[in-house]
Amino acid sequence: MKKTTLWRSQDTTLVKDPLQRLWYARQTIEHGWSRAVLLHQIDTAAHERQGKAITNFARTLPEPRSDLAREVLKDPYHFDFLALGPAVKEEDVRRGLLEHLRDFLIELGSGFAYVGTRYHLEVGGQDYYLDLLFYHLRLRSFIVVELKLDSFEPEHAGKMNFYLSAVDDMLLHPEDRPSIGLILCRRKNRVIVEYSLRDTTRPMGVASYQLRRDVLPEPLRASLPSVEQIETELEQVGRKEEGP
User: Fold this and answer.
1) Which residue from 39, 101, 124, 234 has the highest number of Cβ atoms inside 10 Å of its Cβ?
2) pLDDT digits (tens, 9 = 90+) for 94-142
3) Contacts of 87 (CB under 8 A, 6+ apart)
4) pTM of this prediction?
5) Which CATH number is 52-215's, of 3.40.1350.10, 3.40.1010.10, 2.60.40.1080, 1.10.150.170?
6) Per-domain residue ranges for the chain?
7) Which three-class secondary structure string do you get for the chain?
């Protein structure tokens, strides 16, 4: 097993839950996070956001793939690296994510490969454009991402259902799995999302995103592990995986 590089920090944050430290340690080993990425994940409470998007995966995907797909998505997504003003447009967000593609991919998580933006599909002689198209290496699926500047609306699920049908028909290779949709919106009402996804036939999830992140409240910040504590967990997990 390749030795994981460890770092030292002066951070003395107290950690009440050792399971959180173990979660960050395992994620660091699995995804090869650098010190900067680890600090970002801790600072944005990644352990609380992972797997929290509202999805229909339990109904549209077989186990255990449904569980893996659910864990791939998070809620909310933090796009504070964009530094956009209040008069933002959807095109501003899309362009900003491409200009900061590395940060965007880090926030999306491991396994996402960028395919294109405003990806063109011709269906029935008409032109359609996907906001963002990715391929997920572990899921072996295309991931269609639609950005919405305002609140989630039921028609967003219908349009995504259409896009996924078109992508599966036009882009899939024999070894690919059915495509998955991710609708990113500024706000969402959970009840409306659940009703909208209830009878959809294609796998999709809905999550919110934040352009500016407030400082974490002190009680929450106090519950997060420091880098030094994560290093200790890394050493312990590494020794267990190396074996005697």
Assistant:
1) 234
2) 888 988 998 899 899 889 999 999 999 999 999 999 999 999 999 999 9
3) none
4) 0.76
5) 3.40.1350.10
6) 13-45+218-244, 52-215
7) CCCCCCCCCCCCCCCCCHHHHHHHHHHHHHHCCCHHHHHHHHHCCHHHHECCCEECHHHHCCCCHHHHHHHHCECCEECHHHCCCCCCCHHHHHHHHHHCHHHHHHHHCCCEEEEEEEEEEEECCEEEEEEEEEEECCCCEEEEEEEEEEECCHHHHHHHHHHHHHHHHHCCCCCCCCCEEEEEEEECCHHHHHHHHHCCCCCEEEEEEECCCCCCCHHHHHCCCCHHHHHHHHHHHHHHHHCC
> What is the per-residue pLDDT across 38-55, written as a single tens digit (0 to 9) for each?
777 777 777 888 889 999
| Residue 224 in this model has a pLDDT that exceeds 60 | no
